[in-house]
Design brief:
six-stranded antiparallel beta sheet; alpha+beta; disordered N terminus
Length: about 220
């Protein structure tokens, strides 16, 4: 049963006993989008309520780690937002699939909070860092959560719909008029796999929720 509830603490509980439940990243992301990030747009200069893709993923991960009594280290946070890579080295590292450009996948593996998943086996709620080739032939990156997975009849292609903060998120106008691509948090890009112009790194959250009465002290 998938739930979208106003309380992260409630939303994280699965049908098994509290303390054994695995956190639900997509529920946390949707709750955050409708709550503390309501009205936010994709990162824009001079706009107070704006957030980019990795900042949103990091915020979701921070909420998840709190529910598990854990905390990412400074190095793991840097890895998640791919902030430790020099611009001059980025293209080569992406082309090689280096661990330094795998973002949230590598950060959660390093923290012992997740396991790598083949993109073809991805499921709703998995987190993803991916890179795509632009018209210029250079790699550009994006991050989010997998909202939906669909396969063609022959199961030769897999389409991943990404939930997160995007430049082109469809936002319905308040007056009920036609949707416009204003940017913000919600459903965004669709990745059709396999494709040689994509490098996709998926990670599945595996940490257990800690019961409120026995919450562990966050590790440093």
């Amino acid at each position: 049963m998938n739930c979208i509830l106003p309380s992260i603490a409630l939303c994280l509980v699965s049908t098994v006993a509290l303390g054994q439940a695995v956190a639900r990243p997509l529920d946390v992301a949707v709750t955050s989008a409708k709550g503390k990030f309501q009205g936010y747009v994709y990162k824009a200069k001079g706009v107070a309520k704006s957030i980019d893709c990795t900042e949103f993923v990091l915020a979701v991960v921070n909420d998840l780690t709190k529910s598990c009594g854990k905390k990412l280290s400074a190095k793991q946070r840097t890895t998640l937002v791919v902030a430790g890579v020099k611009a001059a080295e980025l293209q080569g590292l992406v082309g090689a699939g280096d661990k330094s450009i795998r973002g949230v996948q590598q950060a959660l593996i390093d923290a012992g909070l997740g396991k790598a998943v083949n993109p073809q086996d991805a499921a709703p709620g998995d987190l993803v860092q991916y890179w795509y080739k632009t018209k210029s032939g250079k790699w550009a990156g994006h991050a989010g959560l997998i909202e939906r997975v669909t396969k063609d009849a022959a199961k030769k292609t897999t389409t991943l719909t990404i939930f997160g903060s995007h430049k082109s998120t469809l936002r319905k106008r308040a007056d009920g008029a036609k949707d416009t691509k204003a940017g913000g948090i919600g459903s965004g890009p669709r990745l059709v796999l396999p494709r040689d112009t994509l490098k996709v790194f998926v990670v599945r959250w595996t940490a257990k929720v800690v019961a409120s009465g026995g919450r562990k002290k966050p590790s440093k």
